[in-house]
Input
Amino acid sequence: MNELDRASELLRRARRVVAFTGAGVSAESGVPTFRGAGGLWEGRPVEELATPQGFAADPVRVWRFYEQRRCNLARCRPNAAHDVLARWQDRFAAYTLVTQNVDGLHEEAGARHVLHVHGSIWTVRCTRCGRERHEPAAPLPEVPPHCPACGAMERPGVVWFGEMLPEAVLDAASQAAAHADAMVVVGTSAVVYPAAGLVQIAASAGAAVIEVNPEASALAHLADVELRGPAGELLPRLDALLAGAPA
Ligand code: APR
Output
């Protein structure tokens, strides 16, 4: 039995399924990943662009970086991997889609109730009153944007290095991982914690772990099945097998 068949067997037996995604699921939509060749962090001072300290030191520079990402993302559309992961919300008895991505492409593909452990690039938050709002404009009318309520500068609604993840979201994701029959890990290097810890929670709770990634992630040793290739090609084939069609 090949790996795709094994993966479909495991998923066919699963009632509670968690999909956990990273930047790789959006790579075929033209969104750069973070690490590796051509990654966003390549040659860029992460600590100056994606930390609260970096923002405090030079908010305009950080906003220019996020504004560029927003404008690039605004031109990107979901790919076949996003479509499958959205469709699976109606395939399994219990399905939870957890993403590290801030791009919003899962929702654009029709996914509901996505757990965003690293926030969203389309949300901004006031640095004084804490008011959050959805800001889809790309380009922004002004950079940095300012709070319509108190006038103070807003910051990107993403989770930066050294910041806590949204507690309720992380709790919901951890609960889902702890009770999963299967976890599909798509397009993450699994090196950033606590998000990557969700894979360990699922594996130690006995879930079948299926990794979809051209390369082995840092947690590939926890995988029962490794599907080596692009998610946009492999997930539709896996979905076809689940639907009883040839892959
Ligand atoms: N299909 C599936 N996986 C892919 C594809 C593809 N088409 N292309 C690349 N990948 C894989 C890479 O092999 C790599 O393992 O996607 C992974 C991307 O890893 P990272 O760039 O490290 O992104 P991610 O794991 O999501 O990063 C985690 O780090 O920078 C922070 O907050 C940011 O959420 C992000 C977190």
